[in-house]
Structure formats: structure tokens, C-alpha cells
## 1
Amino acid sequence: MKLFTGILFSIFSLSVMAQSVKDENISYTYIKLPSNPVQPKPSNYISNVSAAYEAENQKLMAQYEADKAQAEADYQRDLADYPNKVKAADEKYEREMEAWNNKSTASKIIEKQVLNENNHPVKDYVAQPYRRNVAMPVMKTAYDNNALASTYLFIDGLQKGGANALNYSVTLQGFESTQPKVVSEVKKETSRVNNVSTTVNVTYYHIEFTYRHPMSFSVTNSLGQEIYAAAPAEFTEFTTYKGPATKSSPSMDISATLKAMEDKCLQENLKSINHMVNDRIGYERTDKTFEMYYVKSKNESHNDIQDAFNAANLGFKMLNTNEAQGSMKLNEAIEIWNKALEESDIENKKARIDKDITVAIYFNLLEAYFATRNTTAADEILKTLGRMDLSNRDRKLLESRENSFIDLKLRMAANGM
């Protein structure tokens, strides 16, 4: 009987130990509260984009058109006067030929051979009239400002248009770039032929230039009072572009590359501004990815943990479309996890809820509490985890979660929550 009992205990011990904590990357979207909300909360906003260089562009274009018109007028005048100039040249030539023909042969010989003069008349050349070329001025790119505003400038949680709206505007200062240059770099390359290694210096070339697109933005209320405005200093710093390295000198025609960098810089800066505005005064829809844990075992001893995982997974996904339903599913998972923690025994490696599973459940709960803004329950878990002997990885993860909840608390306080 004792032998049978021992065998049963061994089987039970093996089944409990045959468990491991697994994780899966879960992505979800939540609404981040503004750090400096506008009070009272507005309902609407209007966004627009303008370019500070538009007036200069217009001035350059106006001068270009004036220069072209003057060039055309000069051409038409010269064209009309061309027959007169040809006629005058012909008449002059005829007079000079008549005078030449009237000279004696002796006079002509003396002028040519003695005086070394060749006075034979030559008809004046009358150049054909031509239009003077007027070069197109170098202007900064003009954009469809309405399209830019509609695509990149929005305030989450507010409706576009309407009365008493916030005025959200961005001013473009214009794309700038330095003259491209070819940069050479010597690299050592080793080849092996017939078991003999040879190392040689190989010169590589690439195109290099720097670029930037300064911008500023402002948000004002319906009374014109400034709520938030800045000219981000990072937009004034030049970014270096380095083209692909080749063994031959590359072409200096970089118009396509330059245009691509201009478009990229414009889009990235506008997205950055929109994030700054939404982080401060908007209800920003924020994407987040984290590791959610579950338990893999050879029996059904951890089905409850799997059920919680499935409920939480569904809840996180629903937050973006139906926050209430998503929170309900998360609370369902929270209840299961907390019930499982009643069995936690971090000193017993054979326990159903051992230390590894306990820590995994705690981190799952922290993410669920973050998504549902339950900072009170999260504080208790943060304290408990802080007293535990964690791995370096878990310690760094705990520090990250602590910082997230500090930011969440500040935002909740700013919003009167």
C-alpha cells in the first residue's frame, strides 16, 4: 500500500512539475488621457497648414513671369527690327563695294602688298533674333495644405469642425538641404583562391548630404487664446543622408532621392507634432504591445489560467471598438487570476501556482489594471513584486510598469479622476 501511495505521489509530483510559463505578444489600442487637458473639455477642432515661404515663392514667381514677359518683348522687338538691320547691312556693303571698285588697281596693290592692308569690304553679320532664356527660380515646394491638415492633423476625442472649436495650425518653414558630395571610404577585403588568402584595400563611394524641415505649431481656443505652441528644436537639426556604397563614383543626379527625403521629413515631422498635441490635450488612441503569460502543462491543471488568458486577450482587442465590453472581459480575467493567486506558494516549486506562475499572473494583472485604470489594485501588486526576488529581466519589466503607472496617475489627476 505504501508503495502504491508513493507511486501515486510521484506521478502527481511529475504532473505538477510538467508545467511551464509561456508568453505571447498581445497588441491593443487604448485611450491615453491628456497630460494637460483643456477645461472645459471642447468638442470640436479645426486644423490647417500654412507655409511661411509662400509669400517669397509668389514674389519669385512674379519676378520670373515679369522677366519672361520682358524677354518676349525684347525678342519681338528684335524680330521686327531684323529686316531693317539686314537692309542697312546690305546697303552699307553696296556702298563700300562701289568705293572699292572705284579704286585703281595700283592703289589696291599698294594697300595690300606695301601697306599690308586688306580693305576689301566685308558685309556686316546680322545675328538672327532669339528669345533670351529665363531660368525658373528655385522655390520651396508648395503642398496641398488642406490635404496635409486632413491627413496628419487631428485631435483624438474631438470632432472636426463646428462652433467653439480649437484652432490647430502648423506653419512650414520649408525644406532645406546641403549640396551633395561624394564621400570615399577604404575597406579591407579578403579573398581566398587556391587556399591562399589575399587582402586588398577597396575604395567605396557614396553620396552624402544633410537636410531638415523646421516647423512650428499652435493650438488656440475659440477666443484666440494660446493653449499650446512650440517650434520643436529637433526640427532645426540637420539629418545626414548616406547613399548606398558602390565601388564606382555614383551619379550626382540625386533629384529623386532628395524628393524622397523631403517627403519623408515632412511626414515624420507632422506625425511628431500631432503626437505632441494629442499627448498634451487630446485623448490619443495609443498602440501598445506586451507579453501576456499563460501556463502550458501536460494535463488540465491550469485550464483556469488559460481561460483567463483567452478572456483577457479578447478584452484587450475589444477596448478599441467597445471599451465597456472590453473592460468587462478584462475584469473576468482579473477575477480568475486573483482566485488562482489564493493558491500561490512561491516557496514550493511543486505548487500548482508556484513562484514563476505567480510572477506571471502579477504581470498579467498589472497590464489589465493599466488598461482599466485601476491604479489602486496595481499599487498592491507593485509593492508585492518589489519585495520579491526577481530575475534581472523581471526587475526591468517591473520598473517599466512602475513608470507607466506613475504617468497614468499624473494624467488621471490632471483629468480629475
## 2
Amino acid sequence: MEGGLQAPTRYAVDWKNKDYLNEELFEKELRRVADACHGCRRCVSLCNSFPTLFDLIDESDTFEVDGVRYEQFQDVVDHCYLCDLCFLTKCPYIPPHEWEIDFPHLMLRAKAINHHKKGASIRNKIISSTDYLGRFASKKIIAPIVNFFNNTKIFRLILEKVLHIHRNASLPKFASVTAKSKYLNMNSTFETNQKVAIYTTCYHNYNEPNVVDDLVSVLEHNQVHVKVIQEDNCCGMPKLELGDLLQVEKMMQSNINIFKKYVNDGYKIIAPVPSCILMFKQELPLLFPENKDVSLISKSIFDPFEYLALLHNKGLLDTDFKNHLGSVFYQVACHQRVQNMGPLTKKILELIPNTTINSIERCSGHDGTYGVKQETHEIAIKIAKPIVREFEKTESDFVTSDCTLAAHHVVNAIGKKINATHPISLIKRAYGL
């Protein structure tokens, strides 16, 4: 029997159980799930994991899962970037269905086994260590040098040869003045029950702090008391995708100790990157189900437009927009879609007069690291092609996504000089701030 009428159930990840890293038990579960996927195949268009799996089966001697060697499944694992769309938008066999399939967390288990056995490559360690990379490259003297070389063809060829970073991948620029440093002594003047602490995230602290500026401006324009959190670190998503769960735990503990002080003081936490929000809303509660502080934070962290929608529902959102935006091409980020909060960014942008939102719910293929790796960049560009085709049908004035990296990757796939803009920056523009 396929599907059911009950709401989906997500089980906790029992990663501290000694059997979690047992490859014999894992292979048994892997083949069980692969056999179900083989008979269904409705996830084939989501990412490259499923076409890879089905090709392995179709090209095997038996045309069945038993014809695939265990080590061949590694290609399937490498193409999974834990977007969660298969679980939340496609699979009819997720719990409470009796087959209880959770493909993303099965892939996470495979990644954890691989990391336990082999560790991570130098390249993967570097690009997943966003705090260390950001602290080094965002120094006032170093940032312009890094940005210059990242735009030099010869250097990009060397980078591809040495670290296997694709020469054509869009690499983020580093800011010489970080978001946190701008708001080190911030003193918000609004005395109100609407209190927000901004988790800048690694990307918007070190690479595009202007988005944090715009978020502060929009919130304060709506009479919200704002603070910018200073002592946090990476959310852990890049390490999760490597299967380095012990490092994820360390990062979690450090962040939770900071965040709960703000929550206990009545603040809601906002982060301008969907992946970071998803970590605290879903992944960390599933990895640490007994941790009450994690549960507390998961209920207190919000997407920027989720928070603006809350203000709007209370009649507290200023809708006196001074400027229209025209036509906006909007890619809905995967890690926002799977938070099950609805198209809130689109709804808030549509409050702006004379503004049309052309939205598309297709994966950009970037994932933060998948889109820059030499071995997967061209596949990531291919995944973005349906978005490019839809963009070419419009005459849009702006390209936007709640995931800034996804937006830049889409622009890279479009192949034209277009500036990608975060939706919160569009709201600021519409206010005329």
C-alpha cells in the first residue's frame, strides 16, 4: 500500500547507538530502501542521487539491487546533499508508512560511517570550516587579496588543480568589515515586546554583511528591538554533510549556550540563511532529542519572512511601501521549503504594490559546497537548468532567493551579468530606506 492519511513522522537519529556505524547492518537497510526506491522512482528529478542509484541498478547484471556491489553505492551517497525534499515532498513511504523510509537520514548514516572510517579530505575540511575560513579571509588586508585572486583565471586553474574547486564555480567574496564588527556596540532604542536577536550566520557575517544591515533596517523600521549575536559559531550544516557528527555536537553545544540566554530574555532569533534555521528547527532536535535547550531554541528561531508574517498577522507590519519592485524572479530555497511554513517570502513581497513575484520551486543544485567542487559543479549547473529556463521566459528586474548562495549559483547558470538580491534587501528597497 502506498502513502496514507496520517501526517509524516520523523524519527530521531540514533547516532550514538553502537550499531549506527555497523556497516553490515547499514548495508542491509541500504539495500532495503534502494529496492523500494527502485520500484517507485518518483524522486528521479530531485537531485543526482536517484539517477545514479537507478543507473547502477539498471546497468547491473541482474537489473535489481542485488546486482549492485556495496562500494558502488558510494556514488549515490556523494550526490546527496541532505536537501530533504525527497522525504518531505515526494516519498510516499515515509513514516508512519510501514516501510518507514527516510532516505536523507540513511545517507547521513552513510556519511557518518565514511567519516568514521576515513575522515575528510583536505579540500572538504577547508570548505566546511566556514568560521576559520571567514576569520582568516575577512581581515582588512587579506580580503581584497583573496577576492582579487578568486577572480583571476590562472589562480582558479591552480585552485582547481590543488584543491579541486571548479574553475567556473561562483566563489563568495569576503568583506573586510564583518557584520558582527559593525554591531559590536549596538544599542537599539525601541522599548517593545518585539525583540529579535540576529544570528548573522558565517556567510552573511563574513561575505555579505549588507544583508544583515538590511535586516536590521527592516526590523527597526517596524519598531522591533534588535541585537546582533556576537559569540556564536557555524550552525554545523557543512560538517553534518560530511557526516562529522561529533563536530556538529561541539558546535551545537557552543551555540545553544549563547542562544538560550537571548531566548530566556524574551528574544526571538532570526537567521538570513534557510540552512542554518533548518539545523536548529529540525536536524539538531532529531540528533539530540533529549536536549531540552535544543528543543527550546528550535521553537524560538525564525526565518526573516516567517517573523515578518507574524508581525503582519498581529497588524504590526508596516505595509506603507514607497517603491514598487516590478517583476521579481524568486527561487524558493529547498531548506526553506522543507520547514513547512508555506510561501511566506512570496506572500510578504506580494504586499508591495505593482510587484509581480515569479516563483519557482526547483533546487538550485548548489548546497553550499556541492556547487563548487570540481567533480560536481557541472552537475549542479545542470540541476539549475530548469530554473534558468523559467527565468528566460520572464523579463525580471530582480533575481532573488532566501539562500544567497543558491541565487548566485542560479545567476552563474544563467550566464549573464545579473545581481542576485536577498529578499530582505528587496523589502528595504520597497520601504525606501
